[in-house]
Amino acid sequence: RRTVEGHARRVLVDASHEADLLVVGARRREGHFGLQLGRVAHAVLHHSACPVAVVPHRVHDA
After folding, report:
1. Domain that holds residue 45
2. Residue 52 falls inside a structural domain
3. 42, pLDDT greater than 80
4. In a domain, 38, yes or no
5. CB count in 10 Å sphere of residue 11
6. DSSP for 11-43, written as a single string
7. What is the pLDDT of residue 57?
């Protein structure tokens, strides 16, 4: 583990050069089909030097 300062997109893409896999989250909203990718996940998918796993996050009502 490490802490890095900077823009998340740039930090993750830079880290991808030394990683075997990057894992990013995506929101799944009710009433919408598919995943809602944010700017960071979108950039990592397009510019990563390693494979990327997109893990859906669904908010459950309590």
Report:
1. 8-57
2. yes
3. yes
4. yes
5. 13
6. HHHHHTTT-S-EEEEEE--TTS-S-B--HHHHH
7. 76
